[in-house]
Amino acid sequence: MGERLTWDEIKKKYPDEWVIMLEPEVDESTTTLLGGKVFAHGKDRDRIHKRLRDVEGDFSIRWTGQIRSCGVLPLRKVKPRKRAA
Fold first, then answer.
1. What's the rounded Cα separation, in Å, for the pair 52 and 65?
2. What is the mean pLDDT of the chain?
3. Are 40 and 72 in contact (CB under 8 A)?
């Protein structure tokens, strides 16, 4: 896992990519993402979502590029993995 980066640094380092951030830092008063530790990144959303199987704890998935004018990206349900007893 990488170093903690600001959201602006992440957008510059991984332009037009999906990013999974661990330990995301959020401004509580505005719910604005401030930064986090990049766990995975890439252009293929499905591939990034598959990496969620390896994630534990708090995380955020974000697109670093411009959102299309339609305004909303579809959400996908992620099945929780079964924990060993």
1. 20
2. 86
3. no
The first and second tokens of residue 61, run together, are: 């998935």
* pTM of the predicted model as reported, rounded to 2 decimal places: 0.74
Domain residue ranges of the chain, discontinuous segments joined by +:
4-63
User: Residue 49 CB: number of other CB atoms within 10 A?
Assistant: 16
Q: Which whole number is the average pLDDT over 35-46?
A: 95
Residue 9 contacts residue 35 (beta carbons within 8 Å): yes
Give the C-alpha distances (Å, rounded to integers) separating 62 from 24, 32, 66, 82, 84: 11, 12, 11, 25, 29
Buried b (16+ CB within 10 A) or exposed e, 10-33: bbeebeebbbbbbebbeeeeeeeb
